[in-house]
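Quick one: structure for this chain?
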Amino acid sequence: MNITRNNTDALNAVITVEVNKADFAPKVEKLLKNYQKTATTPGFRKGGVPMALIRKQYGKAIMLEEVNKVIQENLNKYIQQERLDILGNPLPVANESFDWDAEDYKFEFELGLTPTFDINLDNIKTVTQYKIVADDQMLDDQVLRIRKQYGNAVPKDTVEAGDDISGTFNNEEKGINNPATITLDIFKNEAAAAAFIGKKVGDVVTLNTVGLFPDDHQLMDYLKVSHDDVHDLDIDVTFTIEEITVSEPAELNQELFDKLFGEGNVSSVEEIKAKIKEDAEKQFEVQANQKFLNDVTESLLANTKFDLPSAFLKRWIQTVGEKPLTPEQAEVEFERSENGLRYQLIEGKVMTQNHLQITFEDLKAYTAEVIKKQMAQFGQLNPTEADVEGIVARVLSNQEEVKKLSDQVMSEKMLNLYKSKVNAEVKEVTYNEFVAASYGE
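Got it. Here's what it folds into:
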């Protein structure tokens, strides 16, 4: 067995594997003898079939299988020993003049090599790190929402903006007869909302479904039509008003405070707002961190330049699916997945250059924190360490969960690295300002 490599350029190489019969013949002979012991051929007793016949029937197939095993085993060992960083898998080079009757065989394999590049996080200059604060308006709105949630529904005679309107949507042709409670702000169509103003119990409002809601899928909720029907649905529906109520906000008193936060834990509106602010800003931090991570990723993709062995990868893509792809299909697939591949390489380089690793202790600690937060949501605020450790052990026995949690731990390590290394502008914003900056809304 002899293996040599020729680097055709910085991103491509050809490995030549030379195989001699001595590398596989003993194994082939042993397998043929085993076949002879168990072979059943008409005219011969079991175990008595002549070796010449066994060799004729099975020799070529066994030889091909053993040669392939020898090649794969030694090729993989060579790649590991030489510490070759490759993309995809080795691709065999077709040889139309190959002779299986020769004494020695020569096989060639194409390799796509990982590009060499460096990451300099100090060069990222255009990323903003947002700090989202819960402003007074948001806190006032949340207090009002809580008061309405725990308030009383007061019957009314006529509809005004902000009222809860109960009734039934109807369309005989489509078989729609669905009760619902609505508020006028659910409608995208302002004319639809205006049609309800001043109406009384027993009145009927006719609405057209085109553009009625911000998302056509809401027709499934309010009209109970199928998913196939919601797109381009253009019919008139009626809404018969059966009840009109307005929510009378609950009083901000100690009874409400105790109901919300437990007896004696809160005694003023200011304390309610402080708790709302703390909880909201914890949630906002998660969103701000994710945007920061995404923005650094986009900047790295835009500013880290390196070539890929594109031609090799397109040929490799043709071979890896359940069905072979045409060159045209492989071209489309490569364009679709190129950015993802580039980021995997960039992420790997960031991890290598900054010695980012996940230990089992990291994974256990992170999993324990996740479990404690989940238990707290169900009222278990002080679980025992034994309970938590038992759940951690069960979770980490599931390989899919381990993979998911490992990705989350590494994402957290990357975030902390970027926060410490990237020269980002820290900007304090309200949640609405953050949404506008993120989505342009």
